Amino acid sequence: MATASSLYTYNVVVSKFQQFAESHALIRRFTHGQISQADLEKETEYPWMHVTPTGISFDKGQLSYTFDVFFADLPRDKDEKTEYQKQAISDCILLASDFVNMLELGDIFDESVVLTTPISGSPFVEEFSHVLTGVQLSIELAVDYTWNACEIPYIGD
Q1: Can you name the residues that pair with 58 across neighbouring β-strands?
Q2: φ/ψ (deg, to 5) at 107
């Protein structure tokens, strides 16, 4: 349930990430949740953007969400595997930079959402149940938040 304390609930933030992925000409699909739960056996569309929540924190005036954001591709050529992995990492870094640029420039959220910088990223090779290759970003977004007991649906004495 959304309240007046923040326009950017968790659902809204993840929906904005999904809108980015669906609007990007090169990203073929978007998923959310624990990466181990993603059904990689059935998926054939890559590159792929996946968002995993890693934390939330409350402070006066702000609510912060932290995420691991994966951009991954599946090596297709077994003969030139290392060359393909190098290319996949390079391409996924470009996808990640598109995402970061749009976050920073305010194209995904309005100016009330603050992206914490610097953003760290890690390339990965041959991870998860398939041999996915790509890059993982760790991002934190701070949104406006107001402590407000009047909005709590609490029935008490």
Answers
A1: 63
A2: -85, -15
